[in-house]
Amino acid sequence: MDCLFCKIIEREIPAEIVFEDDEVLAFNDINPQAPTHIVIVPKQHIATLNDIEERDLALIGRLQYTAAALAAEKGFAEEGYRVVMNCNEQGGQTVYHIHMHLMGGRRFIWPAG
Ligand code: AMP
Ligand code: ZN
């Protein structure tokens, strides 16, 4: 499959992997927008948030659970952090394999840009 994140999952493209289990992979973003910026992806290819089905609900929860665990591990869980999932063109999605951005280590403004 011609998908960047599937290639990272398959180890065809290198990445700085920070967490892996049977269902999820997390790696440092190549263009970080915060002192810590981690991309968390399901190993299953799902193109956009619009393609989630009911059978995927536990997997989506696992992305969030992984984000919280990594925030704790990195030491910014208590001070706070930002989690983002972009969907389609207006949402700012550039890689069409769903992923959660975990960003921490600085203050974030709201509303997001
Ligand atoms: P999005 O714009 O929400 O689709 O996010 C895609 C993210 O993937 C961006 O933050 C990119 O910087 C990041 N990215 C693109 N290519 C790579 C790569 N080879 N390794 C790590 N992160 C990447
Ligand atoms: Zn993929």
UniProtKB/TrEMBL annotation:
Pfam family, one: HIT
Record organism: Halomonas fontilapidosi
Name of the protein described by the UniProt record: Histidine triad (HIT) family protein
Residue interval(s) of motif Histidine triad motif: 97-101
InterPro entries cross-referenced by the UniProt entry: Histidine_triad_CS, Histidine_triad_HIT, HIT-like, HIT-like_sf
Superkingdom classification of source: Bacteria
One GO molecular-function entry: catalytic activity
Active-site feature positions: H99
UniProt domain HIT: residue ranges: 4-113
